[in-house]
Amino acid sequence: MSEKQASFYASVERNFEKAASHTGLPKGLLEQIKVCNSIYQMNFPVKIGNSYQVIEAYRVQHSHHRLPTKGGIRFSHLVNQDEVMALASLMTYKCALVDVPFGGAKGGVKVSPRAYNEEQLEKITRRYTVELVRKNFIGPGVDVPAPDYGTGSREMAWILDTYQQLNNGELDSAACVTGKPVNQNGIRGRTEATGRGVFYGLKEMLSNEKDCKEMGLKPGIGGKTMVIQGLGNVGSYTGSISIEEGGAKVIAVSEIEGTIVDENGIDINKLIKYRKSKGTIIGFPGTKKTAKREDWVGLKCDILVPAALESQITKANAKKVKAKIIAEAANGPVTADAEEILLKKGVIIVPDMYLNAGGVTVSYFEWLKNLSHVRYGRIEKRFDERAYSNLVNLVEKMTGKKVGQKERDYLTRGADEVDLVRSGLEETMITAYQQIRDIYKRKKKVNDLRTAAFVNAINKVASDYTTLGIFP
Predict the structure, then answer these.
(1) What is the pTM of this model?
(2) Quick one: what percent of the chain has pLDDT higher than 90?
(3) Which of 40, 48, 336, 436 might form a disulfide with 11, Cβ 3.0–4.6 angstroms?
(4) Of 18, 70, 94, 106, which one is the catalytic site residue?
């Protein structure tokens, strides 16, 4: 276990303890909330080519105060128990924060996806699923995985298929995993969900004129300069949506091959296409490469978005940060030691447990869809369109003026599934931020958003435990 990975879990516990002191809850209750309830460490053989490899993997269920437990599955050669425990812990607090009724969980398989072809990854994924089924660590009412770093809808489809083969005839089997392809019981809007949630969170934060003035910024996300570390699912959608819908300007992007800068703004969609064809972001027209890949940390900008792995901003590089806001799109990108330095510098950190909750929020919508066996919008869309059309007709009749076809189409359009998903996500992110801000501004000695978020989450989990009668 490397020091960096060990410090991730230590950072989570340290942040928990900092917030716990503001709750006034009994020590025993706080200890129960903090600890991981169930840890399953496994080793299983998979035939790769002409030989067998023993794969190390994990599934951690942090809290059973709500069921099922919920959390992604990570494929990475850096996976270990300490990391998965930290991620599972964050999932509990994240779900509580956005009022998603799940306990926290997380999975990890210690493999590098780049080292295997599709057929081999399928073998590993299916074998991992078999292990989860054997130990009752997966199921619609037990534990519901989702994508994470190194996995996506493809892997979730393999998990679903394997689960259904082993649980033939289970009515709600499609709800055993989320993040599935749309044509295999998935939901529209899930792929973009985490990045869109980051955008909604920042948009809400920057909507308060008084708060923006304190940060030395004008209200609104429009015109804000942004540096993004990591061009995966989360980073790419955060960037593209912030540009297209918010009017932000991405001036730098960092990836494994290096960091590129363009003060005039980088078109994320074009950059993604460039990287797909060239295999690198280096050389993208109009950009310059920085001397070192790590230089993204010290670039001057309004919003710095670490959207890759944990522990990217540490005690060693925190002093280089020139951003006014750090938006934690990844899980745990800022260590506890780094946070102390940044807060003293006046940097506002929007915590991961809030900002990247878009994924689990839309996963919740997908889970509900699978349990109800009906697509969102299917029942009401046409009814709404007819009602809106009748209203426009009435206005035309009363005013004697005709509405243009383009305007009529806009006014009478019923909501599709993706419209409802985005609306639900935006409402969730707005409500959660308002709760965090209320604690941050109202509660004495709570001096940062992360502590405020933890206080809110801990109180909600504690309320569930006391309601259950475990801690009267």
Answers:
(1) 0.90
(2) 84
(3) 336
(4) 106
